[in-house]
Amino acid sequence: MKPASPRVYWYLLPVAAIVALDEWLKYRGLQRLPDEGSLVDPGLLSFAIHKNWGVAFDIPFRLEFIILVSILIGIGLLHIAYKNRLLHPDITLATGLIILGALGNLYDRVMYGFTVDYLILFGRSAINLSDLVIVGGVVLLLLSSRRTKKHKQIHPDEPVH
């Protein structure tokens, strides 16, 4: 199998720009958007500030624990990206997306003590662009892993990396 082109890393540049845009939107949102609790009729999509003091779905954890676990998961994802960079660049891209999105939310936790969400869906769920980047990376990782598994079933004699 031919090694992957290093061009896969260039795909991460626009994603990094999206995460940077997300940080700018969070900063501006904290200055100008109302608190989500003040929304009278939120509808399908509203723009308001939700301060997520916990992890996904506002599950409460201490900030120090969240930061430590985020760093450990990031190190694990970097290892996966490096290990798969030549034979499975799609896995490297997927882990890169997850890492970049997580860095955006980690920046919030360090700077503000919470993650800033500003897109309120259905008056209940609060997300930001970094969350969407993470979800995109997870979906790509699942699809890539599935393709890799099918490839191994078709070509069982190839070495595993």
Total number of beta strands: 3
- Report the major sheet: 3 strands, antiparallel
| CA distance, first residue to last residue | 12 Å
The helical percent reads 55-70%
Shape estimate: elongated
Which oligomeric form is depicted? Answer: single chain
User: Which ranges are low-confidence, i.e. pLDDT below 50, for 5 or more consecutive residues?
Assistant: none
SSE order, one letter for each helix or strand: HEHHEEH
Radius of gyration: 18 Å
Number of domains: 1
- The DSSP helix count reads 4
| Integer average pLDDT | 89
**Biggest sheet: strand arrangement:** 1-2-3
Strand share of the residues? 5-15%
Structural class: mainly alpha
What descriptors fit this protein?
161 residues; mainly alpha; 3-stranded antiparallel sheet; 4 helices; 3 strands; 57% helix; elongated
Characterize the structure shown.
The protein has a three-stranded antiparallel beta sheet. It is built from four helices and three strands; from the N terminus they run αβααββα. The model has no long low-confidence stretch (mean pLDDT 89). It has one domain. The longest helix has 26 residues. The protein starts with 11 loop residues before the first helix and ends in a 7-residue tail after the last helix. The chain is 57% helix and 11% strand. It has 161 residues and is mainly alpha-helical. Helix 3 runs antiparallel to helix 4. The radius of gyration is 18 Å and the shape is elongated. A hairpin with a 3-residue loop joins strand 2 and strand 3.
